[in-house]
Each structure stands twice: as structure tokens, then as C-alpha cells.
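Students often ask why inverse folding is considered easier than folding. One informal answer: many sequences map to the same fold, so there is more than one right answer. In these notes we will look at a single instance of the problem. The structure comes first.
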């Protein structure tokens, strides 16, 4: 018993020691980041917002296959290019947006000078550290993501990648500095408690924090050594204990630390405190130790596999020599299908181990540790069975040359060395495989052996002399037989496939070409030529002349540095790179390597796009898609190509079955690029491609069973660990457990994937295809937050998802996600490299329940948070001014949408005090009478009151605590408050109006011509948001004026002028804004303007004459221009919207009904002949057009004739029209996730089942109520034609059916939040009329007839306005 306890204690202690070493490294690294930030060591530009910042991993040995030099950031001799604005200064965030963001969060009292010195600098510093989080896990999304960038520069943005190291399964360390700083030091906006720490009394504080006097390079070097050694110790301990998963996780954390610092150095101006050489010298030893430990793990795993297969007598060829496979498996890249050895990461990540080995060799090369590099190269060739000999052996032979030079310089023995001469015959012919075996041993000379007898004497241990340095330089611990190494390389090259050399060579040329474009190092490519700087300079970097075919390595001795180290090739060699890819693609096609061929064609298309050759890019990408589907012209009819044989699978499942996991993602990326860069003018064709891409991305979720099938289920679905699993939300720990989809950059580049996902989502959202975009947003959020660890892209993705959910009126998940953004919850943590960023205040446990009325306590609390909560100063600094304005705009749109779901005139709450909310009538409380009964001497009322008082006190205490935690005022949930629809809507609208006005007032101070694309985008969003505020307030004239201002701003900006179409920028936010600043935005704004002007035609807003018509134009003029524009750009959806508005305008102006019916027929025809996948917006328009068509038919026909037979036939025809509209309304509710009851025997009885999941939907609930009302009225008219005596039974049946339909419509109208009194009164009136007919037939009593009629009178009397 004691032994078992002691054993468990030792095991736990060993595990704790391994974990604590890793935590110690993370803490020291966190403190180092704080110091670098505090002392402003790196005056970094915001690389996350720079389009020209390429992935530095592309130029490393593990990606390029050779040591690449001559690019900015490769060494201290080549400082990175400094970003310069057109005015000559360094680029910062937009000054206008920065001032707007400070105005939004309430920081308006800070002087302008202080803002520019402290606040802006802090924002840039935090933004630069946020960018390091992108590189922390080596799968970051694209700062270079060129979605929306019309410049053909995709070659820069596509061919860069990051691996996907998983995070260590331990809790994050504390955010306090582990290294003791001066007491006067305080972090600047560091977040958490430290960021909000109050200054000590008696000490003066200035705008900037006081810092210690000096930070030396020696201190930084010491901390770097401590970080890498701590991780190395944790890896060694985990490897010795057999905890291989823990060892690999610690290795990935060390990788993340190195990448974080490397990006900070290469993206900033040179500094002497921390240079690339300092980082490499500190990291080389740690990387060498973890590489040796990882090699030991590989050896042990190989031994276990050999024993298993030998015992079961099922030894397979792929497992015979190495866990990395054999040379026959190497084709130059990764397959698009699952590879058992490389893709299964449940026990061992072979791809990441390969990257670690080569990155270590690169560090040893730059630090000139030749002997260690040769030893590691031998071990790599041994464990990988010379699979990667093309990358490893040249450095091995070069290091042997350098060791030989050292030995000869110190008068060492001739070759072969005596220590290896005895075993030289046993090494031939494949000595690399025997390097790790027990046969291969080093024979030490007698003079090199220590005197062990002397060392055993304890007293004389200290007197033993140290070994001679000269003697150490004369001998080597690795074989120096260069001829054997060259012969081994030749044999391995003979056994390898030539196609692998061709593909690797093409990718190497691509890396060398792109190295010259890092940070804008070369000018833009135009057509077939290249524009370069004309200047004379001396370039001391090695010259490499590229060729289209790979170089023959058999005749090389690798004794010159030019043979192992290549410099960036000039821009005029682009055609050589293209020809190399064409040659590699032809070889792969002949070898039938489909996966690598498609990848090569993808990269070739990127180069054509970079060359502005859109025709060739489209041809190559389309051909790659046809190859994956094994069909021709897939893009012309992709629905037919993705249709299952028996219609038992959806398109996503078919795509997964045909193309595989990575093939589906590749097709989605290719289709999105074709839609983005090729199909720019045809809106419908581009939307079809977006649908195809969305189906491809959704196929990832078909690879695992737990994922939902319906699109609406992804509204509250999340993937990844550490998510708060609240009621009603679902989550998965990992996307595909045991599989890393971004392990190979050329197969699935995380940057390209995120760029494509965001672009497709934006396009679908702008065209109102919001449901289809939910799965893509879920995938994008997982990639950004968990795989890439990119804080800003994570927030940006969540904001887009909130926009989509708001448009879908799914306010419950939208409010939950908005709370996460406002409180900074579940954001990638920067300092600790893994885990989540700590929040300043805990996110309150408040949920918006769309199944309950707005007057529920939880819903009212969420309204208070949504109306009053703003971003804190720390979060605003972390997000940056662009994201701060984005958060404010999205929050305002969510407020406006919720307020618009109430049918009321909002109250102006800007001048109200808190006590004013306690006055007025309550919309949701109704007094009920109870019978007086006594229990134990007290009435039931007294008992219930006592229970309610206890519960009331508890709820009040919880509400006060939540209000204090969130920092909001209890306006709606205070004990004396009496909230109403008007008060809630007014509170939300006033908050939205205040925030949007702050953005608009700041941006409007600058001329429109001088605004950047991102600033223009925010100006348009603020004007559109203010217009929606006026729309809910029933002020259509003001709405139309703001929308007209938005159109004028678009018309005046250089982006929309023909003379300055080539507006160029290097800022990501400008590139992202240019996606939305197009003709689609113009047509959408014109549609809103037309709808606003339509409501002014002979309505309550037309007050004071028609003076506004001259300024805004007439509604019919905008309808005509809108129809012509939409037809020109082939947008059938918007064409139908304009036709429907023109129909309503004709109806208001009293045009003849036949003419109105013609317009309706055109509207319905354009919707039916448009896209095959109909959006929710189109569903609604189609249903409204069908209902209006039936109403006008009934009105025109019943006025023409009194023939009973013709009236009966027409009534049946109108009844069928309403039934068709009802079917679409039921289908629409089903798409929103409601439980819909479909009656096949009688489709008129199809309805929504209780409980209704979303009472705040104004999309399908009012439509269901209106259609049920019309069907009931139509049945009543049809019952008139039945004879009361001969057809009495049939007449009673029809009337009872009509009463049932009207009762269902009444229950829906009363349940939804947008209660329409006119609709409710009409339903009650028609129900009373139907009951009156049943009373005449003797089916019911008179009291049943009076009740609905009396309620109709009451409802009509209580409400004195009709908002439509």
C-alpha cells in the first residue's frame, strides 16, 4: 500500500515537474513580451493590417527546401522595409477612425496632443502584439488575405502558411509579470487588473507610464535563454517519462514562442536590443534538444510498431522502415486524400516533426554549429529512410566540409578519422540507416578517454584537468566521409520520383520570387512585364539563376555556400516560375497524382492572377475543379454534378464523397477565387459560385456525425474547447478529432481559407442569403480563434456572424455573441501563447430568450446591457479603431432590429430620467381576479404574496449584483419601472442614434474625396443605420435624406470615378472595405431609398408639402433607374424587389388593376426564373407578391360578375393561390428551425406548432397570420354558394374549417412580438362573421358569436394608429 502511494506520488511529481517547466517558460515569455511592449523596443507598424506582409514561414528551410536569404527580415544586414504613407510618415491607424472610436467609448476629454502621443502609440503596440498571436500557433489567417482586393496580387497572399500546433492541455498562467520590474513600472493597457490598476498615492502620473531606466540586450538574451531552456527541459522530461503527447505539445509551445518573437523582429524597425541573430543563438540550443528528444520519440514509436506487426505477422511495407513512410510515398507534396502516416495526429504529428527537424537545421546553419547539424542530419535521414534527403543531405554535406576545414586548421588527423575507421566497412552502402543502430559506435583514442579511477576519488574530483580545447577541435563526433554522403544522396535521388523534384523545384522558385515582394519589396506586376525600381547598387547576396527544370544534384559537391543558400530572384523571372509550374503540372498529370496536380494548378492560377492574366487563371482553376470531380464543365451546372443518384444526399455530402476532405476545401477556395476575380459584373453568376463554395465548405461538417444538418442549427453552434456551454448552445471540442486540416500550407492554407470564407460570407450576406452563410461562419470562427489564434480576425468573424443573425432576426444567439464581443470573452490570449485572454469583468449570466416575451426578466436585462454597454478603453485599444467602430456599428444595428420588431411609436428617452420609466401603463401586466379561499387562516392571495415577496427579494439581490458587474443602470428592471414596447424601443433607438451620430459627425468633418475606403465604408454604414433609426421612428423623410447622402458620398469618392479606378492601398481594412464598396451597395441603398419614398406617398410622413421631392427625387424615378441598373448587372433578386415596390406604388396611386397585375406577374416571374436557391428575402417577396396577386384578382373578378358558378370557380382559383403562398410560408418557417406541421390531406391546415421558437421574427409569423386570415375569408365566401338545406353538412364543414384557420391566425398574431392591432381586429371580425353563419345553422349559441366581435371592437378602440 505504501509502495503504491509512493509510486503514485513520484509519478504525479514527475508530471508536475514537466508541466511546471512549461508554465515557467510561458510566464517568462509573457514577462518578456510585457517588457518589450513597455519599453517600446519594437516601433512596430500594425502588420495585421498590412497587405504586403507575407508569411515569413514561406522563406524558411522547412517550406522553401533551401536556405533563403536576401529578403527583408532574413538578417540584420537586410532591415525590413518601412511602411510609408503618401504624406511621407509611417503608417498608423486611420486618424479619423481613431478619434471616432475614442468618442464612442467616451474618451473625449483627452487633449488631442496627448491622444496622438500616448493613445495612438498604445493602440499600435497592442495591435502589433495581437498580430503575434496570429503567428503564435502558426496557422494564422491572412493579414495578406486579399479578399476584396481588386489588385491581381494573389500570389503574395496565397502561398504562405502556418502549421497548426495544438495547445498544451494545462490552464493558462497568471497574467502577472513573473520577472520583477521596478515598482514605478505599470503596463500600458495590458488588460486585466494590471491594465486598470490605480496609481499609488503621493506619486504623480503622466499620460505615459513610468518605466525603468534601461533594458539591455544582455537582459533580453538571458530571458530568452531561460524561456527556451525551460521548454527544452519540459520536453526532455516528458520524453523520458514516455509522455509523448505532452512532449509534442510542449514542442509546439516552444515553436509558438519562437514564431512570436521572430515575427515581431522581422516586422519592425531594426533594434540592437533584440535582433534575429540574438534570437537564433538563444533558440538554437533549445531547438536542438527538442529535436533530439523528438527523434528519440520517433525511434521508440518505430520499435513498438515493428514489434506489433512482427507479432501479428501483418507487417506492412509503409511501416517497414520509418514512421515517416518511404521514398516511394514522396511525390513532392501532400495528397488531398487522407494519408494514414502523415495525417493521423492522434499519437504522432509527422508533418510537424519534419518541420521541427528542418527548422532546427536552419538555426544550426545560421549559428554555424556544423557538427551538431551533421549529427542531426544523419539522424533525420535514418529515421525518415532518406525520404527528405533532397532537403537534408545538401546541408549535411556542407556541414561536413566545414567540420573538415576546422579539423585541418587545428592540425587534426587525416581522413577518415581514427575514431570511425574501424567501423567504416559496416556502414556501406546505407550508413544513414545504421547511424542510430547499436552497431554504429565511436572508438575513442586512449588519450581522449578520461581517467575513471581518478574520478571515483571524491577528494580529487575537483583537481581533474579540463579537456583540451585544441584536442576537441582536432576530432569530430560525426562521420566525415563526404564521398559516402554524396553517394548516399545519389542513391536516394535515383529511388525517388522525379515528379517530387519538379513540384518542389517550382515551389522553391515561388518562395524565392515572393521573398522579393515581402513588405512591398518589389513593384506591382502589370500585364506580361514587370515594373522595378531603376537604380544602381551593389548586391553582395549570392546569385541564383533559376531554371524551369530542377537542377541535377548528383554532380554537386556542396562545398560552396551558393549551392545550399539561395537569394531572392528578381521580379522579371516570373515567367520562369510559371513555366516551372507548368512543367510540374504536366509531370503530375502523367503520373496521375491528382491531389498534387490540383495544388500545382491552384498555385499556377495564383501566378496568372498576379500577372493580371484573368483568362488563364480562370482556365487553370476551372480545369482543376473538373479534375477533382472527374467531369467537364462543372462550373456551368454544379448542381447537376453534386446531385446524388437516388436524391438521398445533399450536395455537401456528394462533394465530400467525390473530392474528399481537402479536395472539398480546395474546390471551395478555387470557386471563391473565380467568383471574386473573374465574375465581377454578373451578380447572379457570382452568387451561384458563392452557393457552390458554401456547399464545399459545409462538406467539412459532413465528415463527422455529430454536426447538425440544418443551416439554422449553426446559429448557436460553436467548435473548440473552453467555450461556455450555456443552455441551448452546442459545442464540439475539435473540428475533426485526430486530424489537422491546415497541416500543409499548399494543401490547405489557413490564410487563403479564411480569406475565402470571409469573402463568400460577405457576398451571401449582402445578397440576403444569410442561412447558407451560417456553416461557413462557424468554420471561419473555429479557424481564426483556435487554429490561427488571431484576435482581430476572430472578432471580425463574430461581428459578421452577428450581422447575419440580426438579418435573420435570430436575436438570442446574436445577443449572446454580442455580449462576448463587448466583454472580450473567449479571445485568443497573447502573452501566454495559448488559452483565452482574461476579461476585465466576467460576462454576466444573462441570456436573451426569443421563446419568451420581451418583458421577461432575462430579456429586459439583456436590453439594458445592449443599450448601455460600451467597449472599455482597454478593449478598444486592443481591438483598434477600425474594429471599435465595427463593434459599435454592429451593436447599433442589433438595437435597431430589436426595436423594429415592436409595433409602436418609440418614446424619446433622451431627455427622460430614471424615475420617468416608472410612469405610464405597462403593456404586459394584466390584473386577474381569484376566488377568495383560505388555507390555515390565510387566504390564497396572502400565501402567494408571501412566496412572491421572498422570491422578489432574491431576484432583486441577483439583479443588483448583475447590474454592478456589467456596469449598466437598471432602467427596465428596477422595482418601480413599468417597461412598455415604446420605452424599450426608444431606449434602444436613442443609444443607436447616439453611437452612429458620433461616427458620422467625425467622418463628415473630412471631405468625401479625402476619405480612405474603410472610412467611406463606415460613413455609409452610419448613414444607413441612422436611416433605419428614422424608419422605426416613422420619419421616412429623414430616412430618405440620409440615404441620399450615402448615395452622394459614393458618387463623389474616387473609387467610383472612372479616372481613378486603380485606387491602391496596403491597409487590410481598406482592402476589406473595397469588397463592399461596389455597385451592389449602390443598388441596395437605392432600394432602401425607394422604399422610404414609397411610404411618403400619401402617408403620414408627407407633411408640409412636396418640397422634399426636388431634393430626393420621386419614387417612380428611382424605381425605373433601379430596374435598369439591376437588369444591367443581372441581379434578378433586386429586380424583383423593384418590381414589387413599383406595384405597391401603382396601388397607392390608384392605377388600373390590370396594369398592377402585369407588374406582379413580372415580379413573380423574375423570382421564379432567378437563382435556384432562394434566399429568405426572396421567399418573403415571393409570398407577399402571391398574396397581393390573389387579393387583386379577387377584387377585380368579384366586381365584374355576379354569376355564382364563375364566382365559385374564381374563389377556388384564389384559394389555390393562397394555398401556394401558405406552402412557401411553411417552408420558410421550417428553414428558420420552427416545428411546422404539414397536412398532406388538407394543406390549408398546415401551421406552426407551439411553442414558437422565435416570437420576434417578423419574417414568417405575420405572413402565416395574414395568409390564414385570407384562406379563412375565402372559405367563408365559398360557403355562401352552398345550399343551406341540401348542402348543409358541407357548408357547416367549410365554416368550421374557416373558424379553425382564423383561430390559428389569431393565436399567431397575439403570440408574436410585433403585435398588429389592425390584423388582430380583422381576424376577430372575420371569425365573428363565420361564427354568425354557424349560429344561423344552429351549431353554436349567440354568446359565442358576440365574444370575438366585442374583442374586435375593443382592440380597434384601444389603438389609435396603424403602422402597417
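Output (designed amino acids):
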Amino acid at each position: 500500500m505504501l509502495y503504491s502511494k509512493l509510486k503514485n506520488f513520484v509519478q504525479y511529481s514527475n508530471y508536475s515537474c514537466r508541466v511546471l517547466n512549461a508554465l515557467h517558460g510561458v510566464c517568462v515569455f509573457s514577462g518578456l513580451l510585457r517588457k518589450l511592449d513597455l519599453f517600446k523596443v519594437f516601433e512596430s507598424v500594425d502588420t495585421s493590417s498590412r497587405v504586403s506582409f507575407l508569411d515569413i514561414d514561406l522563406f524558411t528551410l522547412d517550406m522553401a527546401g533551401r536556405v533563403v536569404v536576401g529578403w527583408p527580415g532574413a538578417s540584420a544586414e537586410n532591415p525590413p522595409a518601412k511602411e510609408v504613407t503618401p504624406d511621407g510618415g509611417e503608417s498608423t491607424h486611420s486618424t479619423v477612425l481613431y478619434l471616432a472610436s475614442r468618442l464612442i467609448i467616451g474618451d473625449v476629454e483627452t487633449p488631442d496632443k496627448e491622444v496622438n502621443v500616448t493613445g495612438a502609440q498604445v493602440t499600435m503596440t497592442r495591435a502589433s502584439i495581437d498580430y503575434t498571436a496570429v503567428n503564435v500557433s502558426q496557422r494564422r489567417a491572412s493579414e495578406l488575405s486579399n479578399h476584396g482586393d481588386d489588385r491581381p496580387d494573389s500570389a503574395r497572399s496565397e502561398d504562405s502558411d502556418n502549421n497548426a500546433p495544438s495547445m498544451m492541455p494545462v490552464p493558462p498562467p497568471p497574467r502577472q509579470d513573473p520577472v520583477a520590474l521596478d515598482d514605478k513600472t505599470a503596463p500600458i493597457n495590458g488588460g486585466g487588473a494590471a491594465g486598470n490598476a490605480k496609481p499609488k498615492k503621493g506619486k504623480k502620473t503622466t499620460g505615459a507610464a513610468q518605466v525603468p531606466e534601461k533594458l539591455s540586450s544582455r537582459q533580453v538574451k538571458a530571458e530568452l535563454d531561460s524561456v527556451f531552456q525551460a521548454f527544452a527541459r519540459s520536453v526532455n522530461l516528458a520524453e523520458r517519462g514516455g509522455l509523448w503527447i505532452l512532449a509534442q505539445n510542449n514542442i509546439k509551445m516552444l515553436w509558438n514562442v519562437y514564431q512570436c518573437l521572430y515575427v515581431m523582429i522581422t516586422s519592425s524597425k531594426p533594434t540592437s536590443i533584440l535582433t534575429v541573430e540574438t534570437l537564433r543563438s538563444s533558440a538554437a540550443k533549445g531547438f536542438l534538444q527538442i529535436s533530439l528528444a523528438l527523434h528519440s520519440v520517433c525511434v521508440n514509436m518505430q520499435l513498438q510498431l515493428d514489434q506489433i506487426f512482427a507479432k501479428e505477422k501483418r507487417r506492412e511495407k509503409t511501416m517497414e522502415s520509418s514512421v515517416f513512410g518511404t521514398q516511394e510515398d514522396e511525390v513532392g507534396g501532400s495528397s488531398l486524400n487522407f494519408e494514414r502516416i502523415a495525417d493521423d495526429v492522434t499519437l504522432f504529428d509527422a508533418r510537424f516533426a519534419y518541420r521541427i527537424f528542418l527548422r532546427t537545421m536552419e538555426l544550426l546553419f545560421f549559428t554555424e554549429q556544423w557538427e551538431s547539424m551533421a549529427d542531426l542530419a544523419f539522424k533525420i535521414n535514418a529515421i525518415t529512410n532518406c525520404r527528405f534527403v533532397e532537403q537534408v543531405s545538401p546541408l549535411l554535406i556542407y556541414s561536413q566540409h566545414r567540420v573538415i576545414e576546422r579539423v585541418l586548421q587545428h592540425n587534426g588527423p587525416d581522413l577518415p578519422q581514427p575514431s570511425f575507421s574501424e567501423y567504416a566497412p559496416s556502414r556501406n552502402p546505407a550508413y544513414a540507416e545504421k547511424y542510430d543502430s547499436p552497431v554504429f559506435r565511436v572508438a575513442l583514442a586512449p588519450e581522449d578517454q578520461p581517467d575513471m579511477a581518478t574520478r571515483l576519488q571524491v577528494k580529487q574530483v575537483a583537481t581533474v584537468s579540463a579537456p583540451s580545447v585544441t584536442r576537441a577541435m582536432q576530432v569530430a563526433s560525426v562521420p566525415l566521409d563526404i564521398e559516402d554522403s554524396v553517394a548516399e544522396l545519389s542513391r536516394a535521388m535515383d529511388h525517388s520520383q522525379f515528379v517530387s523534384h519538379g513540384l518542389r523545384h517550382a515551389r522553391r522558385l515561388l518562395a524565392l520570387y515572393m521573398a522579393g515582394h515581402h513588405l512591398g519589396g518589389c513593384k506591382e506586376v502589370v500585364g506580361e512585364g514587370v515594373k522595378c525600381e531603376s537604380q544602381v547598387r551593389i548586391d553582395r547576396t549570392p546569385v541564383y539563376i533559376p531554371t524551369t527544370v530542377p537542377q541535377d544534384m548528383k554532380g554537386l559537391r556542396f562545398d560552396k555556400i551558393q549551392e545550399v543558400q539561395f537569394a531572392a530572384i528578381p521580379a522579371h523571372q516570373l515567367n520562369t516560375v510559371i513555366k516551372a509550374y507548368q512543367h510540374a503540372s504536366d509531370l503530375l498529370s502523367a503520373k496521375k497524382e491528382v491531389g498534387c496536380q490540383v495544388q500545382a494548378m491552384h498555385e499556377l492560377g495564383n501566378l496568372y492572377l498576379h500577372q493580371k492574366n484573368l483568362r488563364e487563371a480562370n482556365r487553370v482553376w476551372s480545369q482543376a475543379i473538373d479534375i477533382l470531380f472527374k467531369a467537364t464543365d462543372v462550373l456551368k451546372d454544379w448542381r447537376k454534378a453534386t446531385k446524388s443518384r437516388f436524391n438521398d444526399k445533399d450536395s455537401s455530402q456528394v462533394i465530400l464523397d467525390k473530392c474528399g476532405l481537402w479536395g472539398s476545401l480546395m474546390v471551395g477556395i478555387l470557386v471563391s477565387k473565380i467568383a471574386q476575380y473573374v465574375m465581377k459584373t454578373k451578380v447572379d453568376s457570382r452568387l451561384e459560385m458563392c452557393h457552390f463554395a458554401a456547399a464545399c465548405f459545409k462538406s467539412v461538417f459532413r465528415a463527422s456525425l455529430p454536426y447538425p444538418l440544418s443551416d439554422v442549427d449553426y446559429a448557436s453552434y460553436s467548435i473548440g474547447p473552453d467555450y461556455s456551454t450555456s443552455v441551448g448552445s452546442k459545442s464540439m471540442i475539435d473540428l475533426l478529432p485526430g486530424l489537422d486540416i491546415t497541416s500543409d500550407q499548399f494543401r490547405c492554407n489557413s490564410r487563403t481559407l479564411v480569406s475565402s470564407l470571409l469573402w463568400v460570407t460577405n457576398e451571401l450576406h449582402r445578397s440576403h442569403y444569410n442561412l447558407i452563410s451560417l456553416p461557413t461562419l462557424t468554420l471561419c470562427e473555429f479557424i481564426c480563434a483556435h487554429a490561427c489564434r488571431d484576435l482581430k480576425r476572430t472578432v471580425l468573424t463574430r461581428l459578421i456572424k452577428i450581422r447575419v443573425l440580426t438579418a435573420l432576426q435570430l436575436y438570442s444567439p446574436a445577443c449572446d455573441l454580442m455580449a462576448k464581443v463587448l466583454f472580450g470573452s473567449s479571445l485568443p490570449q497573447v502573452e501566454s501563447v495559448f488559452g483565452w485572454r482574461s476579461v476585465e469583468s466576467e460576462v454576466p449570466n444573462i441570456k436573451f430568450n426569443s421563446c419568451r416575451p420581451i418583458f421577461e426578466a432575462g430579456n429586459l436585462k439583456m436590453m439594458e446591457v445592449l443599450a448601455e454597454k460600451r467597449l472599455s478603453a482597454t478593449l478598444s485599444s486592443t481591438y483598434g479603431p477600425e474594429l471599435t467602430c465595427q463593434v459599435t456599428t454592429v451593436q447599433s444595428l442589433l438595437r435597431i432590429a430589436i426595436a423594429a420588431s415592436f409595433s409602436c411609436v418609440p418614446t424619446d428617452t433622451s431627455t427622460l430620467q430614471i424615475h420617468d420609466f416608472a410612469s405610464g401603463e405597462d403593456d404586459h401586466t394584466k390584473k386577474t381576479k381569484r376566488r377568495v379561499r383560505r388555507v390555515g387562516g390565510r387566504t390564497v392571495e396572502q400565501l402567494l404574496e408571501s412566496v412572491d415577496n421572498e422570491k422578489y427579494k432574491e431576484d432583486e439581490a441577483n439583479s443588483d449584483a448583475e447590474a454592478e458587474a456589467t456596469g449598466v443602470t437598471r432602467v427596465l428592471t428596477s422595482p418601480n419601472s413599468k417597461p412598455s414596447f415604446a420605452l424599450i424601443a426608444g431606449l434602444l433607438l436613442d443609444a443607436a442614434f447616439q453611437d452612429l451620430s458620433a461616427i458620422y459627425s467625425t467622418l463628415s468633418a473630412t471631405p468625401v474625396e479625402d476619405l480612405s475606403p474603410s472610412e467611406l465604408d463606415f460613413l455609409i454604414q452610419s448613414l444607413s443605420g441612422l436611416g433605419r433609426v428614422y424608419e422605426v421612428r416613422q420619419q421616412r423623410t429623414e430616412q430618405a435624406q440620409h440615404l441620399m447622402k450615402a448615395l452622394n458620398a459614393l458618387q463623389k469618392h474616387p473609387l467610383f470615378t472612372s479616372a481613378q479606378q486603380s485606387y491602391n492601398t496596403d491597409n487590410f481594412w481598406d482592402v476589406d472595405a473595397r469588397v463592399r464598396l461596389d455597385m451592389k451597395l449602390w443598388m441596395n441603398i437605392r432600394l432602401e431609398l425607394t422604399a422610404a419614398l414609397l411610404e411618403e406617398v400619401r402617408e403620414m410622413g408627407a407633411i408640409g408639402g412636396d418640397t422634399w421631392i426636388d431634393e430626393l427625387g420621386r419614387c417612380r424615378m428611382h424605381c425605373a433607374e433601379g430596374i435598369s441598373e439591376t437588369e444591367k448587372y443581372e441581379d434578378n433578386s433586386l429586380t424583383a424587389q423593384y418590381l414589387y415596390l413599383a406595384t405597391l406604388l401603382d396601388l397607392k396611386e390608384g392605377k388600373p388593376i390590370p396594369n398592377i397585375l402585369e407588374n406582379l406577374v413580372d415580379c413573380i416571374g423574375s423570382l421564379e426564373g432567378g437563382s435556384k436557391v432562394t434566399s429568405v428575402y426572396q421567399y418573403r417577396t415571393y409570398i407577399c407578391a402571391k398574396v397581393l396577386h390573389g387579393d387583386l384578382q379577387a377584387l377585380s373578378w368579384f366586381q365584374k360578375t355576379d354569376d355564382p358558378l364563375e364566382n365559385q370557380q374564381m374563389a377556388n382559383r384564389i384559394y389555390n393561390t393562397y394555398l401556394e403562398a401558405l406552402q412557401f410560408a411553411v417552408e420558410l418557417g421550417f428553414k428558420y428551425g420552427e416545428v411546422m406541421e404539414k397536412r398532406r390531406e388538407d394543406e390549408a391546415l398546415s401551421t406552426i406548432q407551439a411553442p414558437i421558437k422565435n416570437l420576434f421574427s417578423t419574417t414568417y409569423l405575420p405572413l402565416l397570420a395574414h395568409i390564414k386570415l385570407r384562406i379563412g375569408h375565402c372559405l367563408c365566401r365559398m360557403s355562401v354558394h352552398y345550399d343551406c338545406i341540401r348542402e348543409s353538412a358541407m357548408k357547416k364543414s367549410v365554416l368550421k374549417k374557416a373558424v379553425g384557420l382564423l383561430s390559428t391566425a389569431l393565436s399567431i398574431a397575439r403570440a408574436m412580438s410585433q403585435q398588429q392591432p389592425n390584423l388582430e381586429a380583422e381576424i376577430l371580425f372575420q371569425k365573428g362573421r363565420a361564427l354568425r353563419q354557424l349560429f344561423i345553422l344552429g351549431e353554436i349559441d349567440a354568446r359565442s358569436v358576440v365574444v370575438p366581435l366585442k374583442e374586435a371592437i375593443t382592440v380597434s378602440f384601444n389603438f389609435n394608429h396603424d403602422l402597417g
